Amino acid sequence: MIASYTCTTLDCPDHDALSGFYAKVLGWNVVHRDDNVAYLANDAGLKLGFQKVDNFAAPVWPKGEIPQQFHLDLEAKDLAAAEKELLAAGAVKAEYQPGGDYWVVFLDPAGHPFCIAPPMN
C-alpha cells in the first residue's frame, strides 16, 4: 500500500452552505472548518470535505461543457420520503433520470449530481 484513503472533497462556491446541506442529508457533524474548507465526519470516521473555489462552475448533468467527473451514491430505505426531505433541504431533482425506478439523481445546492437508491442488499 502506498497511501490510505482519507476523504473526498467537493469544490464549491460556499463551503459552509454545502457542508450544511450534506450535514443535514447524512446526519454527519462538522469536524473542521476554516475560511476555505469544511469537513464532515460520521461515527465510523468516514469524511466528506468541501473546498471554497473562486469562480466555481457547476458540472452539467448528464452531458455538458463541464462534466460531472464523479458523483456520490447514497442509500435511503424510503425513496419517496428521502426525495421530499432532499428537496426541502435545497436539492433539485435532475431533469434527466437514467436509472428508471432504481436510482434517482439530484443536484446539490452547488450543482453536483448525486444519486439516491434503495440499500444494495
TrEMBL record:
PROSITE patterns (UniProt xref): VOC
One Pfam family this sequence matches: Glyoxalase_6
Gene3D superfamilies in the cross-refs: 2,3-Dihydroxybiphenyl 1,2-Dioxygenase, domain 1
InterPro entries: Glyas_Bleomycin-R_OHBP_Dase, Glyoxalase_6, VOC_core
Annotated ranges, domain VOC: 4-119
Coiled coil: none
PANTHER family xrefs: CONSERVED PROTEIN, HYPOTHETICAL FUSION PROTEIN
Full protein name: VOC family protein
